[in-house]
Structures are given as structure tokens and as C-alpha cells.
Write the C-alpha cells for this entry.
Amino acid sequence: MGLIFCLAIVYGLTFLLDTANVRNSGFVWLESRFIRLADRIEIHGLYGSSAIQRRTVLVRKNNVWVIPEGVIDYPVKQIRVEELLRDLSRRKTYPLRSSTTAPERLGLGEGASRIIVRGGAGLPLLELRIGFTDASGREIYLQKAGQREIRSGEDIFTIYTDSDPRFWYDLRLFPELSPAMVQRVHIFPFTAGEAPFTLSRRNNSWINESTGASVPRAEAWLRQVLDAQAEGFAASLDWETAGTMVFELGDGSSRVFRIAYPDAEGNRLAAISGSAFAYSLSEWTARRLWTLGE
């Protein structure tokens, strides 16, 4: 008897949702004309195995998106924000599923994951609530705050709400440098017993100034270093230096890349001259960068 009662409830809810599925024309959450007005995005969601609640705030300053924390504006992957706004403004089929079902039953209550886009003096351009997966397991329930209509669609939004901050941060160590800009590298290893050495560009190859020998793997190694990304940002630039690289550039300037001794967790702090940011590197990443040709 209990099973029959449960099936009846499921059938009734399915019927209620399906009968509302009559307006299947193209629908858009955020009109594209509003994108240029957007200057703040608030993302409320869950991440991690323990489903930790988190709010991430993205702010556009001087036409560049950042994550402000205290007095520091952390860099953000600009293309990732562009992808989010594009997904919100892309016209797609979002079938109307209900206008009478209680939002809480579909995961769209006050505790729902949300993407809020604001423009101007905090003017809300969109508040999109993201609910449970539907019975098919292929779509999620979606609702604009302030509207009764509940729609469903492909799950393209939880990747934004349920990811940790690394999803947004631009953790490139040398975002402004390319290998062609570097003419000489002074390397001071952090491994005991290894002597410092200098690599110099000679036409299309590199030589070790200490020995005069050609270093055929140097260009690939340099590209690896300049393309490297940290595991996260760190809070302090004040620590004892264990190893250093100095990059001399063709315009006469230089960049100093210094790294700390490992902490209790085996990670190392790192910093680059001219940058306000401190980074956290895993021991594996640090050794890979300081080992020529690996």
C-alpha cells in the first residue's frame, strides 16, 4: 500500500510538470545587451566532498574581471567569465516545467545555488537559481528570482557554482612573458650541492656560460617555466628564499623568481619581482621548474 501511495505521488508530480511543458521556444536568461552593463557577478554554490557553502564575487575594474579580497584584486581567467556570460545569454530551449510547483521541492528555495549578475550601482540584471536534477538525470531545474515559472535545461551552470576558487583564478606565474623576450637566465638551485649557472641565448640556441656548451633542451624548459601555474595564492611575501631565477629580458629589464623552503605541508611559497602576488607551489611543481629539461 505504501509503495502504491509513493508511486501515485511521483506520477502526480510528473503529470503536473509535464502538463506545464507547453512553451518550448527559445529562451534566454540574460539579454546580450545587458552584458556590457555587467560589473559584478556573485556566485553562490557548493564545492568539495563535504559540500561547503561558498560565495565567490567577481568584479569588473577598468574592463578587467578580478576577485577582490581586502586590498588585493586577484587576477581572474577572463575567458572563463566570458564563457559564463555567454552561457547565460545564449538562446536555447528551456522548456517550461511548472508555474505552480513549490520551488523548494525542486531545489530552488532560498538555499539554492545562484548566479547573480549586477550592473551599475548594484542594479540586479539577473538572479538565476539552480535546482535539482530532473527525473531523466540529464537536465536541471532553473528559475529566475521573482518569477513563478520553473524551467529545465542542460546542466551547464553547476560547473560555475560548484567549483573551488582555482576554477576562476588566473594562476599563471608569468602571464606577460614569452620565451622570445628572454635573453639570459641565472639559475640558483635550492637543492644542496648544486652550483649556480647561467644560460644565454645565442642566435637560435642556448649555451651554458660556465662551460660554453650548447643546451639543446633549454628552450623547452624555459617555455615550461613561463607557462607554469601555481596551486594557489598565498598571503605573505615575507619568507626566507631557498632558490632564485633571474630572467634578463631583451628590453634591458629583468624578473626575479624566488622560492621559499618547504612548509609543514610540503608546499613552497613563491614570488616574482614586480608582482603584488605571492603564490603557493607544490614540491613537485617547484622541482620540475628548477630541473633543466624535465
